[in-house]
Fold this sequence. Notes:
CATH topology of the largest domain: BirA Bifunctional Protein, domain 2
CATH superfamily of the largest domain: Bira Bifunctional Protein, Domain 2
Mean pLDDT: 88
Shape: globular
Strand order of the largest sheet: 1-2-3-7-6-5-4
Radius of gyration: 17 Å
Number of strands: 11
Largest sheet: 7 strands, mixed
Low-confidence stretches: 224-229
Helix content: 10-25%
Amino acid sequence: MTGGLGTPRLHFRTTDSTNARARELAARGAPHGTLVTASSQSAGRGRQGRKWSAPEGSLLMSVLLRDWPGLLPLACAVAVADAVGGDARIKWPNDVQVEGRKVAGILVEARPQERWAVVGIGVNVAVSVSDLPPELHATAGSLGLARSSVEPFLSSLLGALSARLVAPPSEIVAAFRERDALLGRSITWSGGSGQANGIDEEGRLVVEGPDGRVVLDAGEVHLGSDSLR
C-alpha cells in the first residue's frame, strides 16, 4: 500500500509548484506513489503559506499517496532526517535542521474524502546558502553535497519514506523524540509561551507554560523569533 514510491515519475525543468502538479495528477486518478520532481520552481510553498526558495542544487519533489498513516507529517519528517543522517534534528512538526539550520521543509496537503495526500519535500542538497534570499542567510543550511548527489539523495529519501510510512506509530514517535530539536527550548505561539517538553503519542507538541501543561497541534503554532523560524 505505501511501497512503490517514485513510479510513475514526472519531471519538470521548471514549474510553479511540484505540489500543485501532484494535486492535479491526484484529481485525475494517478496511482499511489506517483512522483513529481523539478529542477526549479517559481511558486514553491512551505507551511503557513511561506515561500520556499529553491536555487540550483535543491531537491524539489512531491509524492502522491493513496494510503497513509495517521502521523503522516511526523513520519515524513523522520524519513527526511533518516536520509540526511548524522546529527539531523526535527523542529516540530516537520522542519529538518542540521546544526540549527534548516536544510529541509515538508508540506503535506490531503483530501481524505478524495483518498489522496500529497507530500511536498524540499531539501537543500547542494545549495549554496549565499544563493538564498538574504533574510534566510542566518537560518538556512545546506547538506553541502555536489549537484550530482541530488538524484542519489532522492533514491535514499524514497527508500526512507517507504520504510517510515509503514512503521508503527510508536516507532515514529520514538524516532522523532530522538531527533527533537525543540526539546527544552522556549517557544511562543498565538496563545502564549512556554518550554517545549517533547511530543505525546499522537504527535502533538507538549508545552510547559506558566499556567501548566498545554498540548498543541500543528495548526496552533506560531514561532515567534528568528531562532525558531
